[in-house]
């Protein structure tokens, strides 16, 4: 099913208001912008609603603010996709940036997939608030216990060590810290430069993608015009536009259709003559 949702599928023409309404109604949320779902938590719960219990909600962080926490949510989602054998690659590095277009496209795909499973009907037996609260409480409890345990060990087990190393420790720290700081600074600068270059390359790719997508959309609109919609060439072009992602023979199929149609037209013309 995932591979059959092509770039020209009607799923990708669903507006953001409809997507937001779909999310808010099913999950009892109040999102006003697409990018508010960039953390991946919403997507995890939509899959949990479609396949109740399939998502380990205690691993989903609805308070994710950093890219690291968001990536962890998408890892959970990708594991669910793998478990369900859904052949869909998640572009995590783009989604966590919060760009509206990237997140809208992914949510459009997700809506199409979920609707294909449940027929577009809402699961009345699913309690989204309860599932979110359970996950959040489990997560907070584990973090609290882990933090408390760490503090206790630090307070009880390291008192003598601190006092015995009070004179020698700071000197060692300064010498190693200075070298480590210089190395860290150089690494940070190198990584920052690499990130900037990657962002520029990504922006260029996005512009190129939007450019060619616009051309494909113009071709589709032209082929849908009543005057030429049923013309052999238009039908052949639409066979290519609407082909599945995994289908490699779309061009051959379109060419065969065009050849057969033209042969029929030629034969009819010869009979009339």
UniProtKB/TrEMBL annotation:
Biological process according to GO: cell division; microtubule bundle formation; thigmotropism
Residue ranges of domain EB1 C-terminal in the record: 180-250
One function term, GO molecular function aspect: microtubule binding
Predominant cellular place of this UniProt entry's protein: cytoplasm
Keywords of the record: Cell cycle, Cell division, Cytoplasm, Cytoskeleton, Microtubule, Mitosis
GO CC terms: cortical microtubule, transverse to long axis; microtubule organizing center; phragmoplast; spindle pole
Domain Calponin-homology (CH): from-to ranges: 13-115
Compositional bias segments (type: Low complexity): 154-181
Annotated region (Disordered), positions in chain: 149-181
Entry annotated with the keyword Cell division: yes
A Pfam family assignment: CH
InterPro entries from the UniProt entry: CH_dom, CH_dom_sf, EB1_C, EB1_C_sf, MAPRE
Compartments, record wording: Cytoplasm, Cytoskeleton, Phragmoplast; Cytoplasm, Cytoskeleton, Spindle pole
Family assignment from sequence similarity: Belongs to the MAPRE family.
Protein name stated in the entry: Protein ATEB1 homolog 2
Organism of derivation: Crotalaria pallida
